[in-house]
Amino acid sequence: MIACVAVVGHQNNPLYLQSFTGADDALKLHHIVHCSLDVIDERVNNPKRSVITLNESYLGLLYPTESYKVYGYLSNTKVKFLVVTTDLDVKDTDIRSFFRRFHAAYVDAVSNPFHVPGKKIISRIFAVRVSGIVKAFAPGTYG
Amino acid sequence: MGREVAESCFDGLIIEMVSAYGRRFYATKPDLASRRIEAIGFQVGHQLIERYTVERPRFSDHLEAIKFICKEFWSELFKKQIDNLKTNHRVGTFVLQDNKFRWFTRVLIDPSSEDNEASQGSSSEATSMLLHFPCGIIRGALSNVGISCAVSADASNLPSCESCILFFALKFSI
């Protein structure tokens, strides 16, 4: 089950953070996302140590804690997409297709002329789309 | 999912935007008008590059980003690629040459004034106002991939629409 999704700008400013657990643990998830940002920076700046090819967008598993896994995706414009999930076995292809849809929704939200680049995304349609993508993701992992 | 608009609507919109900023909003301050038009282009380029770089591996250096602008980005915007790219590495300048700039193929510079010199001056002013928008687009696109630069454009022989050659000069702050 996906616990939360986050979009972080290129100056590590949060653009969107949404938790789907229903419980009041936004702060904890915020903290997890924040720690994952360091891992992303490390992966991007030290490509020799990681297995990921230099310029791929999908960064893979970043940060496994005792109950969560964090996956990362870096766009060409240095915008970071993070997903925190509680599932123990998640297929790579599922996460990749999730990020692709997430990225497409983000591009549509940012193309809004009233959106100020660098500020949080306040579009309700974006929130609805992301919830839809998250709901569509959950059953797929058991298939 | 994408809806389409006739290109002539878009041409009309750009011409009206430039004329509105140049003649109505900031009629006495052409510098301010040009900066506002360039800022509009900046935001457009910023958002467009987000859309066109989805699914693409990240650029490893400036040259790759510029080549992307010359090929894919230009094809999306103008249905053709940049015809010539020259660079001067030491100075950090790139010159993009477009031999048939699509937005200007229908621009008519009105030779209304009798005095030949005055009409020359106003025609170059009009073309330079029109150029700020594409310059802004390029600058916005590059800034979103992390490259800051100054973009200027130069149009030679504009009134002859068949061969309006445009040079965009990108200067990087190294």
UniProtKB/TrEMBL annotation, chain A:
* Positions in coiled-coil regions: none
**Organism of provenance:** Zingiber officinale
Q: What's this protein's family per the entry?
A: Belongs to the TRAPP small subunits family. Sedlin subfamily.
Biological process GO annotation list?
endoplasmic reticulum to Golgi vesicle-mediated transport
Q: What is this protein called?
A: Trafficking protein particle complex subunit 2-like protein
User: For this UniProt entry, what's an example GO CC term?
Assistant: cytoplasm
Pfam families per the UniProt record, alphabetical: Sedlin_N (PF04628)
TrEMBL record, chain B:
Database matches in SUPFAM superfamilies: Ligand-binding domain in the NO signalling and Golgi transport
For this entry, list what GO says about its biological process. Answer: endoplasmic reticulum to Golgi vesicle-mediated transport
Q: Which InterPro entries does the entry link to?
A: NO_sig/Golgi_transp_ligand-bd, TRAPP_component, TRAPPC6/Trs33
Which CDD domains does the UniProt entry name for this protein?
TRAPPC6A_Trs33
Entry's Gene Ontology cellular component terms: cis-Golgi network; trans-Golgi network; TRAPP complex
Q: Which Pfam family is one of those matched by this entry? A: TRAPP
Judging by the UniProt lineage, the source's domain of life is: Eukaryota
Per the record, the similarity remark reads: Belongs to the TRAPP small subunits family. BET3 subfamily.
- PANTHER family under this entry? GEO08327P1, TRAFFICKING PROTEIN PARTICLE COMPLEX SUBUNIT 6B
Specify the protein name. Trafficking protein particle complex subunit 6B
What is the source species? Zingiber officinale (Ginger)
